[in-house]
Fold these 3 entries.
Entry 1:
Amino acid sequence: MQRRAFLHLASLGGGAIFSTGLTGCATAGRPQDEFYFVQLSDTHWGFQGPPNPDARGTLPKAVAAVNALPRPPDFIVFTGDLTHTTDDPAERRRRMAEFKQVVSDLQVKTVRFMPGEHDASLDRGAAFKEMFGDTYYRFDHKGVHFIALDNVSDRGTTLGTEQLAWLQAELARLDRDAPLVVLAHRPLFPLAPKWDWHTRDGDQALALLMPHPNATVFYGHIHQEHHQMTGHIAHHSARSLMFPLPAPGTAEKPLPVAWDPAMPYRGLGWREVDVEDARAERIEHAVSAT
């Protein structure tokens, strides 16, 4: 998609800033296999406070913006923190039900969901499973393997031995040279451990992924765009749809960045992921507009 399309898309979002990152991965290379998907993350439905005075407006605007794309994505994935945390189990379910109702307007056939710690850490994912299904799973799309991991249901920020064993078994079924996309909420590498921006046993997951030369990881949680390599594995984070957070290690605590009335929606955004032919050069860039 061209920059002009993104400028138009931003205007549809009521002045929100939308960002897109394109990442090339290996595919079969046939025209019918070309596709892209949209990653949305950290919607925090149920949040209220000064960091976003339009807290109930940003998600519907994002839905409208995705629906207005000139070419719809093959699927959409929400990478966690669908709702904002609450100690009340009934309120947690009410927020999840409201979230489902809002995103039901998405005009895309396949929409996948993953939990964040705000959705799952207080009840080990019980409410999430009732509303959305499994917290970790694998699926394939047009020759690309996708693995969604759960590093949030355990309050110790771990994947756990059971899930790691499952990951190892799933990877063993795959051709090591096949393109592999891993989805997680928290980063799998130690980006900022004191801020909980890590996965305690993420190194074990990365060790399992290392034999796969075409592995890429997309995650959320940190509410900003960030790119990092661990060996040959590229990691890309998504912006939040509720409020941005400070850059890693630049503050004592990762508190929401204050709302700027002069630049509303600054730092909010979404990611469009384009899976390209193996012969294409790997692309990393971002486009944003007000």
Note: Helices lie at 3-12, 58-67, 89-103, 117-120, 126-132, 161-172, 202-209.
Entry 2:
Amino acid sequence: MSSHHPPQNHATFTHMRDGTSDDWAVIAREFAPYAQQLPDRVLDHLILLNGDCGGFPIDRLSHCLQTATLAHQDGRDEEYVVCALLHDIGDTLGSYNHADIAAAILKPFVSEENHWMVAHHGIFQGYYFFHHLGMDRDLRDSFQQQTALYQHTAEFCERYDAAAFDPQRETLPLAFFEPMLRRVLAVPKQSLYAKIVARQAVPES
């Protein structure tokens, strides 16, 4: 009878200090397949915005799709378009900091410039309405010394985000953007766990 035991499916520790190499091999083995399903989870969460208008002229999903449509039609690259698509994905869980949620999701996969744009778009978007709510519409001006990032984000809000509330405007469906999203979220450019993904992507000899 063979004494070989099949690989365990779960780590055995109850406190991380007691974890063994075998335990962490199990966890590392499970990590890559789960991470590869990230685009599916992001799409599922994006769909939660469907039908939620929050008083706006169109629902939040339509706004995201329209923002991405405008960026795509303007010739922006896939990474930028995906940032436009996901910029408000945090509305469901981040009612008070939605931009932070989107930026956290995108950070491993996009340039520093595009990450900064998504992270700060809420402040920059405020230029168009904060004064109607008793707030300072010029909050974005505190970032003027960061000239390139300021202009990059102000342009995103002016050309795409603030302009994407038209019920009559052509809006491409989510299925159109799905391949782009899957490509952008396929491999992290920067991540604490990038080595794990790279190691598991190398075929065994």
Note: The first helix runs from residue 21 to 36.
Entry 3:
Amino acid sequence: MRRRASLVLLALAVFFGALAPVLRWYAFPRLVKIPPSQYQEMVLEAAPATLLSYDTMEAEQVDKVTIVQTLKGNVEESEKIERDAGRDVVVWDALSHVQGPDGAMVSQIPERYVFDAHTQVPVHATGESVDGDAVRREGIEFKWPFLTEKRDYEYFDAQTRTSAPIHYKGTRTFRGLEVYYFEQTIPWTKVPYPRKMPLPGIDATTLEKQTGTTRWYTTKRMFWIEPVTGAPVNGEEIHTEELRGGTLLGGRDKVTAFSGHVKIREDYLDHTVELVTANRATVLLLVSHLPWGCTALALLLLGLSLWLEARSRRPEGGPPLRSDRETVSA
């Protein structure tokens, strides 16, 4: 009976021992992914800020500029692309809506970001765009991969439509979470005008050709990334835009169009940390807790199996066997 129980325990030990690497190296890469229908809204503020008044074409100090960013999963488009790509794909329709202190629109920039649901690697497909311009992204945008590494990544900049390294700067603690801190600096670069601007009757796509006035931009981008989920728990930008030359400025060399330190609004920051903390627990279940739990259970069952096997080999009753050295007296 003990031997039979020992064999059963041994079989269970082998099963759980084999299950541990399957969960970590097979199930995790296939089961953990970004849902195609995800919707997310984030409100950021630059307070105070410098903002161009298009009525006077003068830069003014304002109390606050607000940027509302939305990411909406496009399930229909992701299913179309999946049929050709042969893998799980997410399509995010993003919108960055900038408004001044009076609530009036300053600019709007829509994006379509197509990427692999498991690895966050861009998937190049028809419709991939920024503000109506077709682009071919290289590197990540918005989100880092699951199990983010302590290294530099290529990060896509929507203003310049190019990718550049974003540098790992060390491990920090942010509101109780261990995070990786990344920085990217985009030097002064000439960029296109947003198609939607507060200039009634002016076509932004031909504004530079008509006036000779160009738009320039630089930013220092900072992210605090929770490494298990690859999700940003905080993001900031020190962002500056200028208009330079041409007839639009009335003979001036340049004027500041926008300048400010952009930060996530406090209530959205709290919500983000709570959401990332919950998602982190789910990912850790597959990547760590279950594999290590199965390994520990396998070792325990193996120990019990060996113990029962050893006991089954001992006599069940009767006196203990005498040593060869024992002597029997008359």
Note: The chain has four helices and 13 strands.
